[in-house]
Amino acid sequence: MPGAPKILAVASATDLDFRYGCTPAWWQIWKGLNEVGVDLIVTPYRGRAIESPWWRTAPNPLYREAELFAGARGFAARLKGDTLLRRGEDNPEDTVGDKVTREAIWRYVTPRWQRHLERILERERDVAAVIVFTVPMAHLRGIPARLRERFDVPVFFYDGDVPMSLPEFGGMDTGFNYYHGADPSEYDLVISNSEGGLDRLRELGARRAAAVFWAADPELFQPAAVEKEHDVFFYGYGDKFRREWMQALIGEPSRRDPEIDFALGGKDFRGDIGNAQVIGDVPFNVFAQAISRARINLNITRRSHATVYASSTCRPFELAASGAAIVSNPHEGIERWFDVGSELRVVTTPDEALAAYRELLEDPGAAEAMGRRARERVLDEHTYAHRARQILELVGVATPVGARG
Fold it and tell me: How deeply is 91 buried, as exposed, middle or buried, from its count of CB atoms within 10 A (0-12, 13-18, 19+)?
């Protein structure tokens, strides 16, 4: 795109096979940036660089080393009889092992990533901004200041998993505790998916912090003309921080009313799922179809996000864009995005959940109408073209062209 502003994106991953929760959203954000006229170069921290119609790539300079490290973590987990090295859900300790790992990363990984990014900026010459998308912040310590000093380029950090990523929660068991050993003040701006988490980011050192909520691409997520197969469907990456709500919305209701068919997509469900059928992983390319195959879709937000005001997750926007009839657990600030009662339902107990399921299953027309209203809300306010323009405004890059909302 001759004349288009360039943005260098340093991404946690671009390969959907890793099943990182943010990666499908990054794809949609990057597509949105392309649609508003940005020339995007994406380089992944984990996995291989994946080509697409919407961005250019630069390779992962430490692909083999990262895979060896991930393999070692997997082996250590298996020695403990588990699939992941798990951390506690409340104020997980910064262990000796964590500190040793960081020291090794600072000695070996960080300088190599600095040279890699410097080479990209030297080659491209006129990059308008660097945005780091949920790479563990501590691992790039010192790099933002170096890039700003040498290339006069602003560097931004986009944390798409606040408050889960904050030290008091420690992130998912698949990754790192981002902020131990990190200095958020190195970045010109920290962008967060959470409005309620902004003050905490400032406490951790961010000079500026702003919220950009998740959204959905209405071309990727739209109602599909498929047969209904399940009554109530939930898809998620495990049940950490949401076991009590899975029990309330799935486990207990599925036992009380065996006539209602419950299906779970995903894996690593360690709590009470009652009589729900686990159907396993759902590939991203058929996720919208899986949503459309259910009469009711559940939005079960993790406690970390649900209790911190306006901490957005991808799922309600994806479900709404797909025209789903959504039933959700309580989520502080969900009214910022949807009209509760008209565009989705919120339930707080197994009794309320069961009543909502029965009502929506008995009146498919009302369920479909609720889904249509939810999709209209997404089209009006919550697409990634909307978010792309917001990001460009925050990082000081002029929007080159208009784009559909």
Answer: exposed
87: left (phi over 0), alpha (psi -120 to 50) or beta: beta
Could you tell me the pTM of the whole model? 0.88
Three-class SS state of 344: strand
* Amino acid type, 94: D
What does CATH list as the number for 230-381?
3.40.50.2000
User: Which pLDDT value is given to residue 287?
Assistant: 93
By CB neighbour count within 10 A (0-12 exposed, 13-18 middle, 19+ buried), where does 86 fall?
middle
Q: What is the pLDDT of residues 367-399, one digit of tens each?
A: 999 999 999 999 999 999 999 999 999 999 976
Instruction: Decide if 175 contacts 160 (C-beta within 8 A).
Output: no
List of E strands, 136-261: 155-159, 189-192, 209-211, 230-237
The domains of the chain are located at 6-215+384-395, 230-381
Indicate the SS3 state at residue 161.
coil
Instruction: Please give the structure tokens belonging to residue 134.
Output: 């949920």
Helices then strands, counting H and E runs in the chain, come out as 14, 13
Which residues make beta-bridge pairs with 179? none
Q: What is the largest CA-CA distance in the chain?
A: 65
> What is the C-alpha separation between 219 and 242, in angstroms, rounded?
30
At residue 376, the pLDDT reads 98
16, 8 contact by CB (below 8 A): no
Fold classification of 6-215+384-395 (topology level) = Rossmann fold (3.40.50)
Cα–Cα distances (Å) from 84 to 134, 174, 176, in that order, read 20, 7, 12
To the nearest 10 degrees (0 to 180), the angle between helices 364-381 and 350-362 is: 100
Question: Same CATH fold, 230-381 and 6-215+384-395?
Answer: yes
